[in-house]
Task: structure prediction
Amino acid sequence: MKKNVLLLGLVLFSFGTTNAQLLNKLKKAKDQTSQASEVVEKVNETTKGGKKKKAGGFPTGLKLDWTMFKQTPAITFNSLLYGTGSSPGLINSYTATFIPNKTVDGKTVHHFENQSEYLRIKVFKDNQYMNYFEYSGDQVFDDGKKTKFNEPDSRYQRDGEWVGHSESFITQWGPGNYRLDFYAGDKMFYSFDFELVKLTNNDPYAAMNEMYVVRGPWNNFAYLNHADTGNLLFGFYITHEEFMPNPSNSRKTNKSVKWSANMYKDNKLFAQHYGSGPNTAQVEQAKWNEVQCAFKLVNKTGEFKYADLTDGAYKVELTIEGESKPRIYNFTVKDKKIVQIAEQDRTKNTDPTRLIEGWNDYFWLKLEK
Result:
């Protein structure tokens, strides 16, 4: 009997030891799996200014019918400057041109149901991918040839988390050189570069100690606009980066800036902005304000119309208070039409993703360095 009990005890001890070893192996495997999961999670997260961000995926995107329009798609240049410069840090309100609203199998794109795969912008900072934003494609006009990149009315999920208005600012990633890659469906069709700068105020009594500003093409480009009225309008951009432009009133952040514009033809004064002296623009703090003016002829009465353009070499000289020298913009008129710069001319532009899109009513002018 004692022998049987001894044998039974040995069997139970052997069984218990085997199970213990098996449990240890399972626990070790579980720990290794947990550690591996933690490693993957850490790889998929990156710290930007103390804030963790999941790398996440980018939705594949709809396969669109890109044969709908003969022209290559683009973002209008004036909407780029407005959307990026009117509220620094928020990227919104862009106008896309020649974006198809049908898929390759003929289905019409629904701006709500297909939102996650239709209009999106990938954001890069210093050539590093940061994240992407979705946009609503519900606003379409000009016979379907223009579509707005508007912020969605409702929140959406990105990397399993809800994204709202507060997450739509690139200021969350701090200052740097940014690039926006515009997508329609599964195609990247346009890129835009600019710099986001953070300014700080060391005055301990100041109402505001920091602000963000964007810099880039705003003071390097101006335009001539063929208005519906037939007028020829000249447009340019001004901002100011002062924390307290009015020393006696810290709440008054706008600044009055004087400016004047003269147009020369074949080196002779031809037309000038309306008024008996310099005009004054109310410029908002850290925002790029668009300023327009019509011209009057120096030797005739009345407004200068687009139809009044005759062939020749032209120059606009823009003088802005506070700037050390005038901004000079040259252009040519041939066959009574303004000759587009190479970056805007679709027959000369070699990179459709960098086309300066002005349609047929905005003629963009480059600043002479």
